Amino acid sequence: MARTNFDQLLQAGCHFGHLKRKWNPAMAPYIYTERNGIHIIDLHKTVVKIDEAADALKQIAKSGKKVLFVATKKQTKEIIAEKAQSVGMPYVTERWPGGMLTNFPTIRKAVKKMANIDKLMVDGTFANLSKRELLQVTRQRAKLEKNLGSIADLTRLPSALFVVDVLKENIAVHEANRLGIPVFGIVDTNSDPKNIDFVIPANDDAKDSVEIILAACCAAINEGIEERKVEKADEKAEEAQADADAEDKPKRQARKPRKAAAPAAEEAAVAEAPAEEVAPAAEEAKAEEPAE
């Protein structure tokens, strides 16, 4: 697995925290020093935490489970959408719909409603609607797409949450905590890390900082997905071989009695032969024996 190094994080500006007066004391273990009134994050610890998070995400992806990415900040929306789509994971970049996790069945109904509207558009039902009704349905479809389109394939609760700026997305973190869903989070110096299972101390405002951390985590997820594919292919090959062996076994068993029956058939033929034929053969065998 490709590891993120100290220099890459430094160049991306991951070490810049918030103003000293805005800090959260719970982040003290991850702060290296303070310069010009701004806290500097210890990137050595950030490197370790990224690797821990990447390993855990890889195992989740390898088991075939989903990770929900959450980032509603304007500067991180495009990054989170691009990275999540690259590994086929759901994401939320618009306003977090309250109860999305704790009231998941209701959210699924809204997603199904969007799918039903698409179906009606295809089968020509909308051709009979008035312009006003068509406009209303179209607007409703656009709103659903904006808020829920990125989670249309999420048929069950995600196995993990990856959050950029845990302070801003505190509702999502709270819902995940209630349901026991592990939370991976990029945590800045103004945030509280106590409710985050996998803390990644870093600048959560800079686009480059978020991008480099997401790139490392998504690369790990992709590795887990690829390893799962390989394992599935190996399992299918083993099953096919086992089926082939099972088909060949009766054939081999059917061939074995024929070999054993050959000597018995010869003995039976000798026993049934007339005495005139057996006697000369016995005399010839006796004549071939060496004299003492």
Averaged pLDDT, please? 84
How many DSSP helices?
Answer: 8
What is Rg? Answer: 35 Å
The total strand number stands at 8
User: Strand order, biggest sheet?
Assistant: 5-4-6-7-8
Helicity level, as a percent range?
Answer: 55-70%
Strand content: 5-15%
The best one-word shape is: flat
Summed up, what is this model?
The chain is of the alpha/beta class. Helix content is 57%, strand content 11%.
Description:
The chain has eight helices and eight strands. The protein has 292 residues and is of the alpha/beta class. The strands form two sheets. Strands 5-4-6-7-8 form a five-stranded parallel β-sheet, with helices on both faces. Strand 2 (31-35) and strand 3 form a beta hairpin. Helix 2 (43-62) packs parallel to helix 7, helix 3 runs parallel beside helix 7 (207-272) and helix 4 crosses helix 5 (131-148). It is flat, with a radius of gyration of 35 Å.
Fold blueprint:
Layout: H1 6-12, E1 16-19, E2 31-35, E3 38-41, H2 43-62, E4 67-70, H3 77-86, E5 91-92, H4 104-123, H5 131-148, E6 160-164, H6 170-179, E7 183-187, E8 198-201, H7 207-272, H8 275-288
Helix pairs in contact: 2-7, 3-7, 4-5
